[in-house]
Amino acid sequence: MKKLIIMCGVCFCVFSSMAPAGTNSGDKKFASLLPSASEEGLGVSQWIDSIYNVMHLDSLGLKKNVFFYACKGYQYLLSQHKLSNSSLLTICDYTQSSTHKRLYVIDMTKEEVLFNTYVSHGKNSGSEFATSFSNKSESHKSSLGFMITGQTYRGKAGYSMYFEGVESGINSNVRSRAIVMHGSDYVNEKRADEGAGMGRSYGCPAVPYNEHKKIIDAIKGGSCFFAYADDKWYVTTSKILQAKFNWPAAALPQPLFTGTSNAESSAEQNSQRVAVTF
Known about the structure:
The chain has helices spanning about 1-20, 40-55, 65-80, 190-195, 210-220, 230-235, 240, 265-275, and strands at about 30, 90-95, 105, 110-115, 145-155, 160-165, 180-185, 205-210, 225-230, 245. It is of the alpha/beta class.
C-alpha cells in the first residue's frame, strides 16, 4: 500500500511537470497593491479613490480609468526593476483635446502633481484630438503605451529626451523613429485659448518651450511615461493592460506610497511588495 501511494505521487509530479505553462490561466499575472478593474472590491475602490482625490486629478481633467491604467503599468515596470527614476509617473492623456493641459508629471512618492501642461501629438494622428496611432517609421503619428524615459541630447529641436518603448508592436520603434520630448513654439497657452489644435509634430510629445527643460530634467533617466487614448486595439493588445494583478487581501490597508521624500527607500519598499509571479 505504501509503495502504491509513492507511485501515485510520482505519477502526479510527472504529469504536472508535463502540463503546459499557464494551464491554470492564460493571463500573465503579477502581484501588486492595485487590482485589475474587474476584481476591484469596495475597499480597493476607496483606496484608489483616495490617491486620485488627494492629488485632485479629477479637477485637472484626468479621468480615473486613465490614472488606473497608468498606475497598473507603473507597478508593472517597478516589478520588473526597469525604473531607475522610480518615483515619477508621466501621463499623456490623448483622450483630451490638445487645447487642454493633458500632460501630467506625478511624484508618486510624495503624491504631488509636479507639472500639468500642454502636449502635442503627431500631425497624422489628428488635429484637435489624437485618434490614430502608429509604431511605423515616417507615419508622423504618435505612439501609445508605456515607455521609459532615456537620456537627453541637443538636436534640431534643442534640448530633447529619448524614449524607450517597452510594448512590442505598439511603441517598440519610438527610438528608431526619433520620437522624443522637446520644446516647441506651437505648443502654448495662447494657441489653446484660440482653440488651435497642437497636432503638428512628427509624433513627438512636444511641450511648451518655457517648461520643457524643467520637465525633461525631472523625468529623464528611467521614469515611467504613459501615453493613452480610448483606442480599442491598444487596450486589447497591450500585455501590460491585459495582465492581472494578484491582489493580497492582507495588503489592502497598507498604503502603496510611503510619503517619504527618499525615492530610493520608497522604490525598494515597492519592489519588495511587487513580486512577479509569471
